[in-house]
Amino acid sequence: MTRDAALLLPSTEPVTLIDPDGHPVPVGQDMPDPQALLHAYAALIAARRLNDQAGALVRQGRLAVYPSSHGQEACQVACVQVLDDGDWLFPTYRDTAAIVARGVDPVQALTLLRGDWHNGYDPAATRVAPQATPLATHLLHAVGVAHAARLRGEPTVVMATCGDGATSEGDFHEALNFAAVFRTPVVFFVQNNHYAISVPLDRQTAAPSLAHKGVGYGIPGERVDGNDVAALLSVLGAAVDRARSGDGPQLIEAHTYRVQAHTNADDPGRYRSADEVTPWLAKDPIMRLETFLRGRGLLDDDTIAAYVEQASLVAERMRTGLAGEPETDYRDLFAHVYAEPTPQLLDQQALVADEVSRD
Amino acid sequence: MTEKLTMAAALNRALRDAMRADDTVVMFGEDVGPLGGVFRITDGLTAEFGDQRCFDTPLAESGILGMAIGMAMNGMRPVVEMQFDAFAYPAFEQVVSHAAKMRNRTRGKLTVPIVIRIPYAGGIGGVEHHCDSSEAYYAHTPGLHVVAPSDPADAYGLLRHAIASDDPVVFLEPKKLYFARAEADLTAPVPPIGTAVIRRPGTDATLIAYGPAVPVALEAAEAAAQEGRSLQVVDVRSIVPFDDDTVCDAVRSTGRAVVVAEAAGFGSVSAEVVARVTERCFHWLHAPIRRVTGFDIPYPPPKLEHFHLPSVDRVLDAVDDLQWEDA
Ligand SMILES: Cc1ncc(C[n+]2csc(CCOP(=O)(O)OP(=O)(O)O)c2C)c(N)n1
Ligand SMILES: [Mg+2]
């Protein structure tokens, strides 16, 4: 591991491989192969569809709330595509699209936001941690999972995501420091969408960039265009390879933008203007990849139609799976507090059972 | 096979035996490696098991807890040491929001079998932030077990149970009792977490205590016996789960009770004990249950702590107050 500060610093500009107009940017870095880009394109279409469908389900009262990753789908897709089956993803509340991209059933992924339980999928089987709401706290769990794997000599890499606001939390710093000191195979992936609810990035940090924070811990930082899936695949892929080979953690900051509200309950008109949002719409991650792939003859209308069709199956699954009221069972309240319910919990469960029997 | 040893030695033996028995048990925290911890509870563990199984971390309690949770999510049984009670507070969010809730959030798919060892409470002349009785914070949090031993045998047995438990256990080690020697048979089985024990039989009134207050209660019972009053002493041992049966049977047998605890009384475990016992034993009681607790003040400086800590005299005064004239 290097202690040369210069080698830990991110590049002066975020790494971009495909510009917003869909043109390749001449840089030293290799473009991911066409198969990987096509796979990412299909996943982007699916992720956008999932975000749109979830928004509609909120309006219909089927979900309590939805923090959308609309506009951040390149980050969602890329951070999963670079992982192996045995790797772990530690997502936030905004990363439902990434969780589904990892293969989790969308209805199970939305259990938290539907409100029938705190988590709907099996984290151990899917290797996707429960979505973390207390900001940055899960980054330490990611370090622990990676450290345990490393002690057993397993090749596991852990991808841990957080937002720009979360980088101000103490646990962000503790996680980076622990990962660096123990050299654990974690990729810290910050989606800098420039807002923490209403608070803009310049109220969050005075650092030159979030990726610069790595140097304080001896972790290499890198900046990447968060709406360029090709650049994300390349930078995140390299970080995963590096972690797997035993070279320790890395901090990746993706520059992107939260084009929609924080959640459906938020009113962004109170803290930012439409003028600020408009330029980001032109940087949309899907359009630029589409233009690039068409320009290379890798994508045509028929292929796009097939991907759209696949994505609509996900939306269909969400609509049917989330229609109607979820089934709940009061016994779940008491069953999973301890391995064995305490005598007191059994008494309390009996009380509810009695109430239910009288209904 | 009894031997005379300190609680510190018993705890060290428990860690050593657990680490020998199970490769997934790891121990980490601040200064727990080569130094063996500021109280030497982890003495020799790094030497015997290597620095992958007993190691020092950077100075960050939330980091220690969070990393332990992650390791537990991935097949390990971490034991962590918080250097002192009041220095566990930076880790509070990890304990309350994650360790305590992970099983529940995931319907049992992920569990957090960790032990959070906390040198705990006062009576050692410690300066500020080194003597807090923080049990109520943890006991109030569903999903945690909270244990406070009062002698070497229990310290050994309960720590082995805590490490074997599939739930997170907050293990409160009374600093004041670390270096007191007692006869103990470490090979004798200790009942599982969740069982209180009658430390001394008695017929006139019941003293209910845990952790550092137990020796005070025993001393008070001894003094009362000189004056012809027979006091029973119950050691709660396990604050969560609470052994209602043993405690309530004891109180019913005497009809009078005093709860003794070092923590401030307001909103406390002692208050919970009074509420529980009153709800269950009202018709057996000859007098309201009294409490002898720390005052509702920040833990005092060393030269004043003797005013604050429950004393034998204060316990005996409370016993005197149990409306004997009506009997
Ligand atoms: C410890 C903590 N404090 C406050 C909150 C409330 N909260 C939820 S999301 C959020 C903003 C987070 O911003 P950022 O990290 O940039 O992520 P983004 O929502 O933009 O994806 C806040 C303040 C929380 N979830 N956890
Ligand atoms: Mg943000």
UniProtKB/TrEMBL annotation, chain A:
Domain of life: Bacteria
Listed SUPFAM superfamilies: Thiamin diphosphate-binding fold (THDP-binding)
Segments forming domain Dehydrogenase E1 component: 49-310
InterPro entries: Alpha-ketoacid_DH_E1_comp (IPR050771), DH_E1 (IPR001017), THDP-binding (IPR029061)
Entry annotated with the keyword Oxidoreductase: yes
Requisite cofactors: thiamine diphosphate
Catalytic activity field: N(6)-[(R)-lipoyl]-L-lysyl-[protein] + 3-methyl-2-oxobutanoate + H(+) = N(6)-[(R)-S(8)-2-methylpropanoyldihydrolipoyl]-L-lysyl-[protein] + CO2
Keyword terms of this UniProt record: Oxidoreductase, Pyruvate, Thiamine pyrophosphate
Enzyme class: oxidoreductase
Pfam families: E1_dh (PF00676)
EC number: 1.2.4.4
Functional note: The branched-chain alpha-keto dehydrogenase complex catalyzes the overall conversion of alpha-keto acids to acyl-CoA and CO(2). It contains multiple copies of three enzymatic components: branched-chain alpha-keto acid decarboxylase (E1), lipoamide acyltransferase (E2) and lipoamide dehydrogenase (E3).
Similarity section: Belongs to the BCKDHA family.
Protein name: 2-oxoisovalerate dehydrogenase subunit alpha
Annotated source species: Actinoplanes couchii
From TrEMBL, chain B:
Domain of life: Bacteria
Signal peptide: none
Domain Transketolase-like pyrimidine-binding: 5-180
Annotated Pfam families: Transket_pyr, Transketolase_C
NADP is among the record's keywords: no
Keywords, ordered alphabetically: Oxidoreductase, Pyruvate, Thiamine pyrophosphate
Key word Plastid present: no
Name used for this protein in its record: Pyruvate dehydrogenase E1 component, beta subunit
Taxonomy of the source species: Bacteria, Bacillati, Actinomycetota, Actinomycetes, Micromonosporales
